[in-house]
Design a protein that fits this description.
Layout (H helix, E strand, L loop, with lengths): L2 E5 L8 H10 L4 E7 L7 H6 L1 H13 L4 E8 L14 H20 L4 E4 L10 H21 L3 E4 L10 H10 L4 E5 H5 L5 H4 L6 E6 L18 H10 L5 E4 L14 H15 L5
Parallel strand pairs: 1-2, 1-8, 2-3, 3-4, 4-5, 5-6, 6-7, 7-8
Helix pairs in contact: 4-5
Length: about 280
């Protein structure tokens, strides 16, 4: 059977402790934690300023619910283009390295074995080859650092990134031995890339994000979803996938992802996936 988690950042209007309590009420045993600059109480800048206090508070908030951590998702800037992994400025990349090592410390403190990051973006006035070379170098550095700490590192291909389609994603994967994916079909289906094409990336997935989606719609209610979750779950089961599937509804005006009832859709999507997660399907 597939293991499920849920993103605490589905509910950003609550405090971290309240988010964890809500996930426990929803029946989850595992949580995905987002270290996002937009996430009150779980900001990378807070971690950087007081690592010990940050980790201690997180341990306390989690301990009150008994939740275990499936993934730490590190987004250092307020936007994917801010402090991107392949930022052309060396001081920015050096600070990114500091933040990445601190995120690995958080993983170790919380007994979390998976860390997610972003692959990088295209930069104005930077040659495409140079952007790609920096992305490869940084992904390799991150993968090596994570592996040395006993943690699996996965990049999430996303809209606007250097991994916005399947060919770009495979190119980066092939350039960095050991690199894996935190795979969200929604970013591809949004661009009108069908689920059947995205299936080719499943062998590289170490973690999965799931929410309703459709062409030109990054997030939809389950009833309007066009991602082929039935086929995804069958393929994961047949390949004896060992990672987590994280229910990852978000609440942000980016991509109009603030038009769903995240509590209800989280419940509905988990029920749908669990229904497919059975040998009889």
């Amino acid at each position: 059977m597939i293991s499920y988690s849920c993103a605490e950042y589905s509910f950003p209007l609550l405090s971290p402790a309240q988010r964890f309590a809500l996930l426990k009420l929803l029946g989850f045993e595992y949580v995905d934690i987002g270290l996002f600059e937009r996430s009150a109480g779980l900001q990378p800048s807070q971690l950087h300023a007081e690592p010990g206090a940050f980790i201690k508070q997180l341990q306390s908030d989690l301990g009150s619910t008994g939740l275990k951590v499936a993934d730490i998702f590190l987004q250092i800037g307020s936007d994917p283009a801010v402090s991107a992994a392949n930022d052309p400025n060396l001081p920015v990349r050096s600070r990114n390295h500091e933040m990445f090592l601190l995120a690995l410390d958080v993983c170790a403190a919380l007994d979390c074995k998976h860390l997610t990051g972003l692959p990088g973006v295209w930069h104005d006035r930077v040659a495409e080859a140079d952007d790609l070379a920096l992305a490869v170098d940084e992904a390799g550095w991150r993968q090596h650092a994570a592996s040395g700490a006993g943690i699996t590192y996965g990049i999430e291909p996303h809209i606007g990134s250097i991994c916005a389609d399947i060919a770009q994603t495979r190119s980066l994967l092939e350039s960095v031995p050991g690199l894996t994916l935190t795979l969200d079909y929604g970013h591809f289906v949004w661009a009108d890339i069908p689920s059947d094409d995205v299936h080719s990336l499943l062998p590289f997935a170490s973690h999965m994000h799931a929410r309703g989606g459709a062409p030109a719609r990054l997030q939809t209610p389950v009833g309007e979803n066009e991602i082929d979750f039935e086929s995804i779950m069958r393929r994961l089961r047949e390949s004896e996938y060992k990672g987590f599937v994280a229910i990852e509804y978000v609440y942000t005006d980016w991509g109009q992802c603030n038009r769903t009832d995240n509590v209800s859709e989280t419940v509905l999507l988990r029920r749908l996936l669990e229904g497919y997660d059975s040998p009889r399907n």
